[in-house]
């Protein structure tokens, strides 16, 4: 492999998404070594190794975080960055960072014990959403519609989590978002495509739960939120989930995913996300090689 011109692709398994990224990288002359979660990581001196970059596409957020930490400590640049992955794999981290940075998001509270949840739901007018810090595909996300509902939520967890290890949890106001949320895919600094995820049956509009995809034009407000997100998280590959809040008449950020899936959606909206990712990887490698040529010639 060419010195520093290959990519280490960290995955749990090679899905359609990753295979397509590999094919596009090959067309751009970039070699890829696939690294499964079960495999050893190349943690030697990174400047001597073949890899210019590690692309992190592990399914499990825990694996993504751990493997990125190891690679980063060994000196290999990762996409996304360790900072971005640390924030994006934790909904509480996101809420804190977005608050600090003035990124619009639903009103929220961090709650550290079950008893405190009762006060929190009152503050949100007996309608709110409880979220574990780490989750995806809508798992563990619960809409709470009053005291009795909350008692049920607490009771259902008591036997499986008697020491309340799952706390703190994030409590958000329930946003009147219509029957959809908005997914924007960002590559590098650019929002490359947006679409609505529409569900008439389920208030959770994850595509995994059956939401339908409807392409959407990226307007100025959406573009401006994406710019803010990139400012805060750094360049990278993101799936930003937004709501249009029909009460406040503004867009808010629900969450940002660090490993957006696109196998199903790109066939509907037609934007080849894998191509954009491959092209961006190439740009990063070229940028890096220019920097190292400059350093070496000084
Ligand atoms: N505060 C909220 N108000 C209304 N709907 C919400 C709220 N939070 C989440 N949802 C719905 O639940 C879905 C899953 O929540 P999300 O925070 O994105 O978790 P996940 O990581 O599991 O996708 C969202 O796509 C959205 O449809
Ligand atoms: Mg989501």
UniProtKB/TrEMBL annotation:
It is an enzyme of class 6 (ligase). Its EC number is 6.3.2.43. One of its GO terms (cellular component) is cytoplasm. This is [lysine-biosynthesis-protein LysW]--L-2-aminoadipate ligase. Keywords: ATP-binding, Ligase, Metal-binding, Nucleotide-binding. It comes from Fontibacillus solani. It comes from the Bacteria. PROSITE patterns: ATP_GRASP. One of its GO terms (molecular function) is coenzyme F420-2 alpha-glutamyl ligase activity. Residues 95-282 form the ATP-grasp domain.
């Amino acid at each position: 492999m060419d010195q520093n011109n290959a990519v280490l692709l960290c995955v749990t398994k090679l899905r359609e998404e990753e295979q397509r990224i590999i094919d596009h990288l090959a067309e751009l002359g970039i070699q890829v070594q696939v690294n499964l979660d079960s495999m050893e990581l190349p943690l030697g001196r990174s400047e001597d190794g073949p890899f210019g970059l590690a692309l992190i596409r592990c399914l499990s957020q825990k694996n993504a975080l751990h493997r990125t930490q190891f690679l980063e400590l060994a000196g290999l640049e990762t996409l996304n960055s360790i900072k971005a992955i640390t924030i994006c794999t934790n909904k509480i981290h996101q809420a804190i960072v977005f608050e600090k940075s003035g990124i619009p998001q639903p009103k929220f509270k961090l709650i550290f014990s079950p008893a405190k949840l009762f006060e929190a739901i009152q503050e949100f007018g007996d309608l709110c959403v409880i979220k574990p810090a780490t989750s995806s595909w809508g798992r563990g996300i619960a809409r709470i519609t009053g005291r009795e509902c909350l008692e049920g939520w607490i009771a259902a967890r008591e036997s499986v989590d008697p020491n309340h290890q799952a706390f703190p949890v994030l409590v958000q106001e329930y946003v009147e978002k219509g029957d959809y949320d908005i997914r924007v895919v960002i590559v590098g600094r650019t929002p490359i495509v947006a679409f609505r995820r529409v569900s008439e049956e389920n208030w959770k509009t994850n595509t995994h739960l059956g939401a339908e995809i409807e392409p959407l034009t990226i307007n100025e407000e959406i573009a401006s939120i994406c710019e803010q997100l990139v400012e805060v998280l750094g360049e990278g590959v993101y799936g930003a989930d937004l709501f249009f809040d029909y009460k406040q008449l503004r867009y808010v950020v629900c969450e940002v995913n660090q490993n957006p899936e696109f196998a199903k959606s790109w066939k509907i909206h037609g934007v080849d996300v894998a191509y954009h990712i491959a092209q961006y990887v190439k740009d990063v490698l070229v940028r890096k090689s220019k920097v190292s040529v400059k350093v070496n010639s000084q």
